[in-house]
Amino acid sequence: MQERQVVVVTGISKGIGRAIALRAAAQGACVAGIHRGSDTEATERLSAEISALGGTPLILKGDTGSTSDVDRLAGSVSEHFGRVDVWINNAASLLVQPFLSMADEDWMSIINSNLMGYIRGARAAAGIMVPAGRGSIVNISSVVADQPPTEMTGYVVAKGGISGLTRSLAVELGPLGVTVNSVSPGATETPLNTDSWTDEVRATYRDRIPLGRIATPEEIADVALFLGSDAARYVTGQTISVDGGLLLNGSVGHRRLAAAESTT
Q: CA-based angle 94:170:177, to the nearest 5?
């Protein structure tokens, strides 16, 4: 009988994190995670959904901005399941502010949640995986690291740091049996984007994305779980863009010219 995976997801209660948890549960995994907020019923509902899909849940309240909370999650997973096969760093916050309006406190907040949280998660995961000689760390990044929007410098810097973290850890942890990769979502309908997206923003994305639509969280989850699967056992240090072709589209509406009209 095949061994059940133990999958850990930070920011498990909403958006991409929730989609990953439910996808993993449907595969029969033991699914653990952490999320902020005081809504006990939300935790209970998600646990029930994971169980109904065939998974075994372990969901804690906490903040990846806190080292003790992340370490508590890792300790609880080890105690309940004995190992960690896949650790997915996903918890993040969004800040849309002009660069000149950002104080030191704004920078510390966005870096702490969006980069240091991943560092804490990777460290906790590696602390369990390295002695076991196996495991996979998957970081959820963003295409903004390669295609920065205006007034999102803090978020872009943090996501760019995730790319460096992914590649560096892949080199350092690879000889110890641990792969490290990242998923770079494009425009995705998540609660994180609800407050900053208008109908005009959504229409612009649909116009720019070659596939003609905004991604669902489940489409990101599928790729994250692929990177944590045995099918990706020889993949490490890579970032996979899941963006419907958004990064590729350099179209700006050029007027058509016949070859004879072209000039140098």
A: 125
Residues designated as active site: 155
Within 8 A by CB and 6+ apart from 155, the residues are 94, 95, 96, 110, 114, 142, 144
**Can you tell me which residue has the tokens 């999320």?**
35
pLDDT number for residue 196: 76
Structure tokens at 152: 């999102």
pLDDT tier for residue 1 given thresholds of 50, 70 and 90: very low
Residue pair 208/186 in contact by the 8 Å Cβ criterion? no
Q: How far from 21 is each of 29, 49, 255, CA to CA, in Å?
A: 9, 10, 47
Backbone angles phi, psi at 173, to 5 degrees: -95, -15
The DSSP element (H or E) to which 207 belongs, if any, is helix 199-208
Q: How confident is the model at residue 247 (pLDDT cuts 50, 70, 90)?
A: very high
Continuous H helices in the chain: 15-26, 40-52, 67-81, 104-111, 117-132, 153-173, 191-194, 199-208, 217-227
Strand order in the sheet with 56-61: 56-61, 30-35, 6-10, 86-89, 135-140, 178-185, 239-242
Question: What is the phi/psi pair of residue 21, to 5°?
Answer: -60, -45
Query: What is the pTM (predicted TM-score) of this model?
Result: 0.93
Q: Poorest-confidence range of 138-147, 151-160, 196-205?
A: 196-205
Judged on CB neighbours under 10 Å (0-12, 13-18, 19+), 60 is middle
pLDDT digits (tens, 9 = 90+) for 89-147: 999 998 999 999 999 999 999 999 999 999 999 999 999 999 999 999 999 999 999 99
In this structure, are residues 228 and 138 in contact, taking their beta carbons and an 8 Å threshold? yes
Tokens of 189: 């309908």
